[in-house]
Automatic annotation (TrEMBL):
The enzyme's E.C. designation: 2.7.4.3
Organism encoding this protein: Manduca sexta (Tobacco hawkmoth)
Protein name per the record: adenylate kinase
Pfam families registered for this protein in UniProt: ADK
Molecular function, one GO term: ATP binding
Cellular component, GO, one term: cytoplasm
Similarity field: Belongs to the adenylate kinase family.
SUPFAM superfamilies referenced in this protein's UniProt entry, alphabetically: P-loop containing nucleoside triphosphate hydrolases
């Protein structure tokens, strides 16, 4: 498997990454070579936490202060859903069940978005990824090593309350009581395994405080990285 390249990789150049339909995942395959992102100059920050933990809220503040490029896998998937493709119908069903979308789809969307912004980005905020252990491994293989992981910690009760509070105005199909329960279950089933992979890069933040108190902790993590 390792040495057998997919058909497109036999061509001298492939036009669009990632474009390999056979997914050989060989390190020689151009579709699976790492994105050219120098993380010493452009840090990569994974922003993790349960549904409603405040990832999006804190990302807005991080963008305002640090000018990082924000990529939310939830937003990327919702944009794909809006495209109305055959794949979009399947994605809608998965997201309405509160389950995880297959990783090849998420990683393809993420890698494509990062490559498109690699030149001008000062750093990347990857919001809502990885959500399972294999996603983290695949990201670092296909793109680049993560610089730091910010994890927003809050109880299921707090998360549920916030999402139900947001439901009236969000217009999101997954902000309803039944789907929130399923989203929480998916999160709880996977989260500890994800975090356990990165003991040295992981920074936990108590997310049951005010937005500004939380952001003070976020800055204490990011200031030394951008200095
Ligand atoms: P996604 O869109 O990422 O949703 P989520 O993880 O469930 O998180 P949310 O966006 O709902 O919440 P948030 O943490 O950003 O909180 P927010 O700041 O909005 O993913 C949706 C779906 O896409 C998934 O279920 C899955 O199907 C799929 N998907 C996404 N990524 C995937 C992946 N990597 N692999 C596979 N599938 C994937 O805040 C929430 C509310 O709380 C707001 O009203 C806000 O005002 C309020 N709030 C925020 N902070 C505070 C605070 N400190 N105090 C009080 N209220 C607060």
């Amino acid at each position: 498997m390792e040495d057998k390249l997919c058909h497109p990789c036999e061509q001298p150049k492939i036009d669009k990454l990632p474009g390999c339909p056979l997914q050989c995942r060989s390190p020689k395959c151009k579709a699976y070579q790492r994105a050219p992102i120098d993380t010493s100059k452009k840090p990569i920050v994974w922003v993790l936490g349960g549904p409603g933990s405040g990832k999006g809220t804190q990302c807005e503040k991080i963008i305002a202060k640090y000018g990082f490029t924000h990529l939310s896998t939830g937003d990327l998937l919702r944009a794909e859903v809006k495209s109305g493709s055959e794949r979009a119908k399947c994605l809608t069903a998965i997201m309405e069940r509160g389950e995880l979308v297959p990783n090849e789809i998420v990683l393809d969307l993420l890698k494509e978005a990062m490559l498109a912004r690699a030149e001008e980005a000062k750093g990347f905020l990857i919001d809502g990824y990885p959500r399972e252990k294999s996603q983290g491994i695949a990201f670092e293989q296909a793109i680049a090593p993560v610089t730091v992981i910010i994890y927003f910690e809050a109880s299921s009760e707090t998360l549920t309350k916030r999402l139900l509070g947001r439901a009236a105005s969000s217009g999101r199909a997954d902000d309803n009581e039944d789907t929130i329960k399923l989203r929480l279950k998916t999160f709880i089933d996977n989260n500890e395994l994800v975090l356990a992979q990165y003991p040295e890069k992981l920074r936990r933040i108590n997310a049951e405080r005010s937005v500004d108190e939380i952001f003070a902790d976020v800055q204490a993590i990011l200031d030394p990285i951008v200095a």
